[in-house]
Design a protein that fits this description.
Hydantoin permease, Helix Hairpins, single chain, 35 helices, mainly alpha, five-stranded mixed beta sheet, two-stranded antiparallel ribbon, 9 strands
Length: 901
């Protein structure tokens, strides 16, 4: 494949990354913000899968079989602990604005300058080979595409050119702000995109080899079983279970302690809840990207054997089959795997170098303290950019001088063993309150000495930098100081051997020295905060644990020097407003302002350096651990009291609202009562007025003709009956509502009941020229109900239907699973929308005096509703009728003689 095509494709892909990063950066404050989605966060954690995964896993599988999976089994197991463990680390880091793993450990152990420097130095020393591995993967993969030697001069130029391009990208999108705690949305979106690219590319080549060159996984496994490589599915005798255990542990620790993983999972986290998606999506990603590793390794051995470096089977097999497009796609995937790791790892290391090596030394050596009066933003950014360049240069030099002959996996495992040395200090720091900085420092140093002696030193011997006698006879000719058989232990492979001794001595030193040495006051305070962050996290915002004095002007100038005048004023004003603090320059700075300033500076220069800066402008008083614990307890009690007060306040507010609702309801009922009395009085007055008028006529005119007297007497009787019915209905309604009306349940033939009612009302029905249809589910239809009351319901509803119908009325009774359903339908003018519920209200007419008053008392439907509810049924009006109305009610099959409600 031509070099020009490779360069064009590679540069085109990098330009695409620039475009994605720019878009994500521009949309950070819009609704199109990508980085706020948990999917982006979970995918960005895929930066764990580097060129080691993409190329090296196949090479490892081709030589060792399935033990390659241990490096991914470890993180999968650790993902289960993301929520309890990683979440605690995340909560601490957000609360204290921690920007790196060195910052985290330094802050835990009293914001100590020395331990931060130790962690940074060892981190750089341990991870530089891992970055060099990525450079090696880029150059070697290009050599495979060119069918050139990986050690040729052209690959050296490619390595240099690639490093320069990555430097430019990293500086543009990883060193934009002095605040290292600030998020990098462009970079995180690019990391998520690259995770998808390398996954899809690897799956494509895996599918091609497995299902196009072979007849599936079964075919590959069966062919491999017939060759000398049939042991690829078994444990190596040289490593056995100890190798599996040690590499699984390394994988579990690496997902937390690799600088790039700490950067993406902790520093770049936008929302704590995003961890929930990562707990299942990240393991799923690891499964998918490894599913074809073994088939590719076996397929490569069957097709190419040992004629090609097994690390690059994913490229050489498509090239051998003249599938240039697939080879290029696969190479882009490998480029994604390598560049993503280099960019994030370099950013993380540059922050650690600037915050824990360069800036602390500058602050300690600069006696005139000119930084108090000048802006240091550009200086800090330049230090960080220089650190990025230095890291990449060291990685390039390592690759050119030491890394070209080593396998990808061997380099990666060395780095994994290195960062594992931080585990005792970090895990001990968040769960064991007695762990102190002396134990942490000595434990880390001992662990790194053993790591260097057992893993790095043998490589230096093999490359000719040290005499071969060290591996032959041991250091200084002492056999028990043999790097690969330390203290006479010969049963383990090199990785297991190093992991065992380094972590054993590291943990032992940490525990022993912590038990027999004392913590300082500041260290005790930090231990209390870290181990009980959920209990004391609010103290960091309130800044209560600080004693001393500082002028507000000095604090303001200090903050301006490092974040700029405009941003400093914005931050201080917002914080002061939130906590009701006076910011007048002549006043002594509030303790909360001092604590807030230190946290902001911690995000810029690291927590240890921030403490040094604050100490230069503040006269701090020593605070004993007893005072710290007293303040913490008082604050916790205050928090609990505030919670209780908020709870009581909410309960009081809820009770007040309930009282207001009840009062409103009572007022409404009182108003309804008045309106009801007015309506009933009006209804009573009408027949009484008629009776009185007719009686007076009869009394004043005794000479009226007998026929006319008869008419007046009939009218009086009619009005009296009307008056009696009204009083009866009011009394019945009152009895229903008061629960004094008992049901007398009998078996009723509904068909006969309706037939009788139809006969009774036939005169009115015929007079209005209406047709009445009765449909029953079966005859006889026997219902259990109070005969008089149900007859009253039928009479009320049928009477309404006759009143409003124009041509037809239909009554139907159907059977459901547990109840009868009765429908009475007319083709009249219908019911206005929105009135379907109101018409059952006994106060409906009283509330709607502007409506034309219908004939009757207006209590029929209210009484019908009460009767149906007493029977355990429901009554309603079907909505949506375009013409006419349909009343529906239900009656359960079985009834009991019940009373009231």
């Amino acid at each position: 494949m031509s070099t020009t095509l490779i360069i064009i494709c590679g540069l085109g892909y990098l330009v695409l990354l620039f475009a994605i990063a720019s878009y994500a950066q521009k949309t950070i404050n819009t609704s199109r913000n990508l980085v706020n989605h948990p999917f982006i966060y979970a995918l960005s954690m895929g930066v764990y899968c580097t060129a080691w995964t993409y190329y090296g896993s196949v090479g490892r599988a081709a030589s060792s079989g399935i033990d390659f999976i241990t490096i991914y089994l470890g993180p999968t197991i650790m993902a289960v602990l993301f929520w309890p463990v990683l979440r605690k680390i995340l909560t601490i880091s957000k609360s204290l604005r921690i920007t790196s793993i060195a910052d985290f450990i330094s802050t835990r152990y009293g914001k100590n300058f020395s331990i931060g420097m130790v962690v940074t130095l060892f981190c750089v020393f341990g991870v530089i080979p891992y970055i060099a591995l990525q450079i090696k993967a880029i150059t070697s993969s290009i050599a495979v595409l060119q069918q050139d030697s990986p050690t040729s001069l052209s690959t050296v130029y490619i390595a240099i050119f690639s490093t320069i391009i990555l430097f430019v990208f990293t500086v543009l999108y990883g060193a934009r702000s002095v605040d290292a705690a600030e998020k990098h949305p462009g970079l995180m979106t690019v990391m998520a995109f690259e995770s998808l690219v390398k996954l899809l590319a690897f799956l494509m080549v895996g599918v091609y080899i497995t299902y196009f060159l072979f007849d599936g996984m079964g075919d590959i496994f069966s062919q491999t079983a017939a060759t000398a490589n049939n042991k690829l599915l078994t444990l190596k005798e040289s490593s056995g279970y100890s190798g599996w255990m040690s590499m699984t542990v390394l994988g579990m620790l690496a997902i937390v302690f690799l600088p790039r993983q700490f950067q993406v999972s902790i520093v770049e986290n936008v929302q704590e809840q995003h961890l929930k998606m990562a707990t299942w999506l990240f393991p799923l990603y690891l499964i998918l990207i490894n599913i074809f590793v073994l088939p590719i390794a076996m397929g490569g051995l069957l097709l190419q054997g040992n004629t090609v470096n097994a690390d690059y089977y994913v490229l050489s097999i498509p090239m051998m089959q003249n599938q240039g497009w697939l080879a290029m796609t696969t190479w882009i995937g490998g480029l994604s795997a390598a560049t993503g790791m280099i960019i994030i790892e370099t950013i993380a290391l540059s922050i650690m170098i600037s915050n824990h090596l360069v800036i602390p030394l500058l602050l300690r050596t600069q006696q005139n303290q000119n930084w108090k009066q000048v802006s240091l933003q550009s200086n800090i950014l330049n230090i960080r950019r220089f650190s990025i360049g230095a890291v990449l240069l060291l990685a390039l030099l390592y690759y050119l001088n030491l890394g070209q002959g080593e396998s990808l996996v061997s380099i990666g495992l060395i780095s994994f063993c290195a960062v594992a040395q931080f585990a005792p200090a970090l895990f001990g720091g968040i769960y064991w309150k007695e762990g102190n900085k002396q134990g942490a420092i000595i434990g880390i140093i001992l662990g790194f000495i053993i790591w260097f002696f057992t893993l790095v030193l043998p490589g230096m011997v093999n490359n000719g930098f040290l005499p071969a006698s060290i591996l032959a006879n041991g250091l200084f000719g002492i056999e028990w100081l043999h790097p690969q058989h330390l203290f006479g232990l010969k049963e383990f492979d090199s990785i297991s051997h190093s992991v065992f001794w380094s972590l054993l001595l590291n943990i032992s030193a940490y525990i022993f020295i912590s038990v027999y040495t004392q913590q300082g006051a500041q260290e005790q305070y930090q231990a209390e905060i870290f181990t009980n962050i959920n209990k004391h996290g609010a103290l960091q915002e309130n800044g209560l644990v600080w004693k001393g004095t500082a002028q507000m002007q000095d604090i303001r100038n200090l903050l301006k020097s490092f974040v700029g005048a405009e941003r400093a004023e914005t931050l201080l004003t917002a914080y002061a407003k939130r906590h009701k603090i006076n910011l007048q320059e002549k006043l002594v700075a509030d303790a909360r302002i001092v604590g807030f300033t230190e946290r902001i500076l911690g995000g810029v220069v690291g927590v240890a350096s921030a403490r040094i800066l604050v100490q230069t402008v503040a006269k701090e008083e020593e605070i004993s651990i007893e005072e710290v614990l007293t303040i913490l307890n008082e604050n916790q009690q205050m928090v609990e009291m505030n919670k209780e007060l908020r709870k009581k306040s909410l309960e009081l507010s809820k009770a007040t609202q309930q009282l207001q609702n009840m009062n409103t309801q009572l007022l409404s009922i009182d108003e309804q009562k008045n309106e009801f009395l007015y309506t009933v009085t009006h209804e009573l007055r009408t027949p009484l007025t008629s009776i009185r008028a007719l009686s007076e006529i009869l009394f004043d005119n005794p000479d009226l003709e007998a026929e006319q007297q008869q008419q007046y007497l009939e009218a009086i009787i009619k009005e009296t009956v009307r008056l009696s019915n009204l009083i009866t209905q009011v009394l019945n309604l009152e009895n229903f509502e008061a629960g004094r009306r008992k049901l007398t349940i009998t078996d009723i033939n509904a068909g006969k009941l309706l037939d009788d009612m139809a006969a009774t009302l036939s005169g009115i029905i015929q007079a209005k020229q209406l047709s009445l249809t009765i449909q029953l589910a079966q005859r006889p239809t026997m219902i259990q109900a109070d005969a008089d009351l149900i007859q009253q319901v039928f009479m009320n509803l049928l009477g309404n239907a006759i009143k409003f119908a124009t041509s037809a009325i239909q009554i139907s009774i159907s059977k459901g699973e547990k109840e009868y359903k009765i429908e009475i339908t007319d083709d009249g003018k219908g019911i206005d929308a929105g009135m379907e519920e109101l018409i059952f209200d006994k106060f409906f007419q009283a509330k709607n005096q502007t409506l034309k008053k219908p004939e009757g008392t207006g209590l029929g439907l209210a009484i019908s509703k009460k009767i149906i509810e007493l029977h355990g049924g429901k009554i309603w009006v079907n909505k949506g009728f375009t013409k006419g109305a349909q009343f529906v009610f239900t009656l359960p099959y079985e009834q009991e003689s019940i009373s009231g409600r």
